[in-house]
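Look at one such:
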Amino acid sequence: MKTVPQLSAAEAAALVPDGAVIMAGGFGMTGNPIHLFHALAERPVKNLTIISNNVGEPGLGGGRLLRNGQISRAVGSFFTSNPEAVRAVQNGSMAVELLPQGTLAEAIRAGGAGLGGFFTPTSAGTALAEGHESRVLNGVEQVFIPALRADVAFVRAWRADTAGNLVYRMTERNFNPLIATAANLVIAEVEEIVPVGRLSPDEIVTPGIFVDYLVQAHTTLEDLGTSASVESGKETDPTRLAMARRAFAVLKRGDVVNLGIGIPTLVADLITPEHGIILHTENGLLGVGPAPASGGALEYPVNAGKQPVTALPGASYFDSAVSFAMIRGGHVDVAIMGGLQVDGAANLANWAVPGKPLLGVGGAMDLASGAKKLIITMTHASREGEPKIVPHCTLPLTAMAAVNVIITDLAVFEFIGGQLTLIELMPGATLEQVRALTSARFVEALG
């Protein structure tokens, strides 16, 4: 059995040359090779390309590289959590390629498998499809995505043996097992290194054949940032809670459900094990339980909103490619997410506003096109009083002909036979209000 060399973080960072393409694992503040990034930020290397889900997450080493001007190009799914990344794009110091989160995971998986790329329906008909080849396959428009590979991969694992076999911890898997296969040089930052034989072959996720160097580095609460502990305080806005309760009423026993950020996350507080509803989070957990009473990401998994949660009996962890295979493969029954606009053709816009950098699509496109049922929760009108249910979306599209149910603070709509249909008024709302603030044509089927 081979022995993988062990380096310090500084020694590992010294292996990265100017102009390198670097892949890095991590989702939000968990599963990130923080110490490798910090060591790289101390080096004089420049003109780097970073491939990562959240490039420049505040508080992480990628953020330091960004501030240092060491990153010239970034490929990822979500950048808007860091205002510095937004400014870097606006002033032209960093170029960005934005990919839906599931597409990013699959592109990395394809690169590691030696494939040239793949076709996917995710992002078809949207701004992200521009410049990509498009074909109709099996009656569905699909976009070609080239595979992704890197010069160097920075992996974060929980434990390794001296042969380089890696074990991951809970939702810290995310992109890490994928990038370990898709780079010419793989450096794994791990919490603990044990002798060969201490790890069971059953628990090894990344075989040591993929790993070139090991770096031992301990995670602290400071490293986890906002995921270090459970957020205090609960959502109390009655209007938002009413919308969450109405969305919950759509769910059925046995449904596998993915909840987006914002109002949809409130639905989780309404679900108990007795309801038999299975929550899925795209960063790698099926069987999400309620938030713990105390503690954080050192003790618990996190959800897609970076919040510590529990795992119910029967839950499972997996990497991001498997997670989005569940989504794209039609195994998620319901996705509940927010919206900026929905139009009369059931098209959804919920990720970008003209005049602002298009830097934050996340997993919305995959979920909107892959879930069997899509429920949108949103206020009926914008802060400026403009209708959000419109004849045609004027904002960049997330998915075409995907929405099934719209729940607003005023009303509930369904698309019945392709027709936008008002089926219910929310408590305190009037039909006149709904008519005045809905610019799309709809039929009324109030009970």
Notes: Residues 238-250 form the longest helix (13 residues). The two ends are 71 Å apart (CA to CA).
